[in-house]
Write a structure and sequence with these properties.
- This protein is α+β, with helices and mostly antiparallel strands.
- The chain has two domains: 67 residues, Orthogonal Bundle (Arc Repressor Mutant, subunit A), CATH 1.10.10; 127 residues, Beta-Lactamase (2-Layer Sandwich).
- It is built from eight helices and 14 strands.
- The strands form three sheets. Strands 1, 2, 3, 4, 5, 8, 9, 10 and 11 form a nine-stranded antiparallel sheet that branches. Strands 13-12-14 form a three-stranded antiparallel sheet. Strands 6-7 form a two-stranded antiparallel sheet.
């Protein structure tokens, strides 16, 4: 990872290892999880470096890490389930035909137990496929009508989309910005171009452009693919067999 200091790079890999191994929505409090890794002042400087590079985002009130791009540690409208060779990449379960199964208690449908992540935005949800080198099943919602949107990415290409005319809005912010605050909330899937246009009119959104799913996937690969900082960190993490060691 060019331009990252070695200690910050190792810390970043440690944080990513927590993300991919923890339950969806797990809390990441630096003072608790990372307190024994290095002295507090060095930890703060490393986290500041990661945040300045737009690799993480911390809540300004609680100091919790709430985003490690492309992953969100808070619930979002973008849910991503991983698969390799037709099986869940982490549990080994077969890929389900549908997204929901009947509850054991007969109280209607409930989500099947699978390893699922939250993503920061539509592009990030696609980017998880490249970052973790896995086929993914994305479940999202249209911000205009709340219709369910389902997208499958297989072998780094969109293999299924429902509705078939869904698209992505890519927000542009002039000048410096915090992606988690100023961009990600606006980068979403839409069930159709018509609903995207209607949403822009309703919300007064001007700067940005529509993307097809193929265009959005290209952007996701550019940001989170094997040559990106995120992709290199995760590839190194998969190769590593020894735990991260920090100098104290």
């Amino acid at each position: 990872m060019p331009n990252l200091k070695p200690e910050a790079r190792s810390l970043y890999q440690h944080i990513l290892s927590f993300i991919v191994a923890s339950p969806r929505g797990a809390k990441l409090r630096p003072k608790l999880l990372l307190k024994n890794i290095m002295p507090a002042e060095r930890l703060r400087k490393c986290l500041d470096e990661l945040e300045s590079r737009n690799l993480i985002y911390r809540d300004k009130n609680s100091d919790e890490i709430v985003a490690v791009y492309p992953f969100s540690l808070l619930p979002t409208s973008h849910e991503v389930t991983l698969y390799r060779n037709g099986k869940n990449a982490w549990t080994g379960e077969d890929k389900p035909v549908g997204l929901r199964v009947k509850s054991r208690r007969g109280r209607g449908p409930t989500r099947a137990r699978q390893k699922t992540f939250y993503a920061m935005c539509a592009i990030d949800s696609m980017g998880i496929s490249f970052a973790l080198d896995a086929d993914v099943l994305i479940c999202s919602r249209c911000p205009f009508c709340n219709a369910r949107i389902k997208i499958e990415i297989t072998n780094r290409a969109v293999s299924f989309a429902e509705p078939p005319r869904c698209c992505v809005w890519y927000q542009i912010v002039e000048g410096e910005c915090i992606s988690a605050v100023n961009k990600c909330p606006w980068i979403n899937f839409f069930c159709s171009t018509e609903h995207l246009v209607a949403w822009r009119s309703r919300e007064g959104v001007k700067l940005g452009h529509r993307m097809s799913l193929a265009q959005a996937l290209d952007r996701a690969e550019e940001v989170f693919g094997p040559r990106s900082m995120v992709g290199r960190a995760l590839r190194a993490l998969r190769r590593r067999t020894e735990p991260v060691i920090f100098r104290t």
